[in-house]
Amino acid sequence: MPVESGNSVAARQAKQKRKSHSLSIRRTNSTEQERPAGHRDMLEGQDSRLPMPLRSNLLDLFGQIEREFENLYLENLELRREIESLNERLAGEGQTVDGGDLGKGALKTKASHSTSQLSQKLKTTYKASTSKIVSSFKATTSRAVCQLVKEYVGHRDGLWDLSVTRTQPLVLGTASADHCAMLWSIETGKCLLKYAGHAGSVNSIKFHPTEQMALTASGDQTAHIWRYMVQLPLPQPLADTSASQDDDVDFSDKDEAEGEADGPSECPTVRVASTTLKSHQGVVIAADWLVGGKQVVTASWDRAANLYDVETSELVHTLTGHDQELTHCCTHPTQRLVVTSSRDTTFRLWDFRDPSIHSVNVFQGHTDTVTSAVFTVGDNVVSGSDDRTVKVWDLKNMRSPIATIRTDSAVNRISVSANQRIIALPHDNRQVRLFDMTGVRLARLPRSNRQGHRRMVCCSSWNEENQTCNLFTCGFDRQAIGWNINIPALLQEK
């Protein structure tokens, strides 16, 4: 019996494929012929320079596309009928939809377990399609007016953190991956002083509540406390920063020497810290002053937070319990409370109000890294996460958040204004958004080729002592930006 060669087998299979394909084409063409051919005849009657065979093939393809859309339309109608029947079934079993509007995605369960499962299917069906619609209707009345005022340019690498002094003179401090921290004149944008005492990236900067001292945390596993003395220059007329920038050039890709030409090389430099805090075995990612300024807390990648005495530089307490690296720490403005956040998806509240009892509470409200958690002037904690949510918590009842803000990008170090209680959200996608404490969106800071950040925005900081620049942001584009945020009276009343 002859054995069929490999080439003949492959040829026979290819022939069968061509045959089945031609059969399917013939079926399609036969179906096309059965359909009303008014549009086809009209198109064929028109003048065209295309060859007739090519034109005929195009008409067949367009006919197939039309049938696909027709099938989708029919499926959509069928799904609508199924939804209507499900609604009737829910109504018959004693279950109602809030306001008769499925777009709200909220169902009141009053029936058996099977009915609740049906309700859950409806909620899942509508959740994805209506989330954007619901969020867009949350705040459509009054909006905050945002204007870029000043850009602070001079660092040679991305900026991780920024802060404003709490005492006069009011200056802006920035912490950068270029191993330096800088102090800036808010009004003129000039660099007043540079601190170059760290051997690693400067990840955080915070100012003493009453004295001219700064606290910086670094990748060199230390935190430094250093004193500064600055003299503010005379304010100059504001220049149009947007007009001087090239629309097509990313600032972060410009030559470093160009970024330094604005004065940081001429400003005084401090290289020695007055106090060095050494106890961590990993990167110190953040640090902050406790109320009164006599103690500081540091957060590290070694999964611990440390409490130090400023005068003696001694380690007072080591706060352990997080399962992964810490990302941020913050202190309460009026009480001896500390909140630490971590990559383990939790944030912890540490209470030092009673010297003999150091209680701790763990909160699991996020599904990804908690990038920051901050106190407000009232009894609230606001937490932001890489899971693209921000949650507002009540210190008196931390079992569940009182408001949840859902965004389209990971959230970095947030800040809350003391007077107007507005949350500023810096994002990985270069956007900065403003929300109130109830989760209503107020505004998005302008961002274009002419103004705004061009890389990831790492941090935001409010300063309501200065009416010209009351919000500052910084990011990987090596610059900090001062904004004027004007809140309408209607929103302030709320």
Output the keywords.
494 residues; alpha+beta; 6 helices; 22% helix
Tell me about this structure.
The chain is α+β, with helices and mostly antiparallel strands. The chain contains 6 helices and 31 strands. The chain has helices spanning 6-34, 38-45, 52-92, 113-136, 256-259, 489-493; strands spanning 96-97, 107-108, 145-153, 159-164, 171-176, 181-185, 191-195, 202-207, 213-218, 223-227, 269-270, 275-277, 284-289, 295-300, 304-309, 315-320, 326-331, 337-342, 347-354, 357-363, 370-375, 380-385, 389-394, 403-406, 415-416, 422-426, 432-436, 441-444, 457-462, 471-475, 479-486. The strands form 8 sheets. Strands 4-5-6-7-11 form a 5-stranded mixed β-sheet, with no helix packed on it. Strands 3-31-30-29 form a 4-stranded antiparallel β-sheet, with no helix packed on it. A 4-stranded antiparallel β-sheet has the order 8-9-10-12, with no helix packed on it. It is globular, with a radius of gyration of 31 Å. 33% of the residues are buried. Residues 21-36, 97-115, 125-142 and 241-264 have low confidence and may be disordered.
